[in-house]
Amino acid sequence: MLKTILFDLDGTLLPMEEPRFLEGYFGLLTRAMAPHGFDGKELVAVLWQGVAAMVANDGAKTNEAVFRDVFARAYPDRDADDALALLETFYRTDFNRAAACCGFNPAAGETVRELKRRGFSLVLASNPVFPRFAQEARLRWAGVDPADFSLFTSYENFSFSKPNPDYYRAILSVRGLAPDECLMVGNDAAEDATAAGEAGIPVFLLTDCLINRKGKDVTRWRRGSFPELMRVIDEATGN
Fold it and tell me: For the whole model, what pTM was predicted?
């Protein structure tokens, strides 16, 4: 029986063209960090190194700890905790201006609220390479209330990342769920659909901002926009 809906965030609940978002995000970040002595190009390169390390994380430590290690190695003459505190300040303030680089689909918030009203448990299954407050910020940009979600995956509380199927298995373990009690909703054919499927979780591929870098055959998955998603859920629950 379907109990829990897992939602990706970027490109799913929050419409975006990834290159445009990254350009705006990194521009805001480098300008915010420049007064503290950080070279913009170097900082962006270090952030990508941190993301790569979190994606490769084998579960031995949290993604936050992995990212901190990368940052500490890249800036040995800086206090890593102080530097990460500066990043936290950015994510709580100037980062919100990156909302202008994203789209907005009112159906996202409407769908979340309706599923919550029906009694489904909702999980924000956004790749946990951001701190929780950055995940919450992007939800608000999408017109979604963070309080509607019973679990956020963020770099503080997860030790695996997409596209590792163990990321999805960890969600199942934390929530005490069987794969067939869940539905993963995402826009990335590899990170969302393929990886969740390898963990045994049924998938709905949201195609509004489809990412299919490897040219996968998407006809294997149920797919479409939010109205099609609701029809799939209705069928699964006998409505």
Answer: 0.96
